[in-house]
Fold this protein.
Amino acid sequence: MGAAEPLDGARAAREVAEQQLAAARVRIHAEQADHLARLQAAVAAGTTARERLATASSEADLATAALSRRQQEQERGLGQVRQLADRAVVAARVNDRELAAKPPA
């Protein structure tokens, strides 16, 4: 029976090693699943962030175009106001000259 004892010890050691290996594989698979879930969440968050950035950029472009149109409209309106003011000044000067040119009654 002396030869059987080392064989039994080797079998027991092998079973322990196989159990440890199986436990390590389970742990590794669980870690991989966790990492995969984190990676997928990060990719989804990145995609969402890119979509929000694209939307914000598009909205900024629209706002910039609208602002440019409003500024042009204001410049046109200001030009019209200046033109009307210039005409009023000219009309007032012409009226003053006409009054000055008339002899007193």
The CA atoms of residues 64 and 92 lie 41 Å apart. The chain has one helix and no strands.
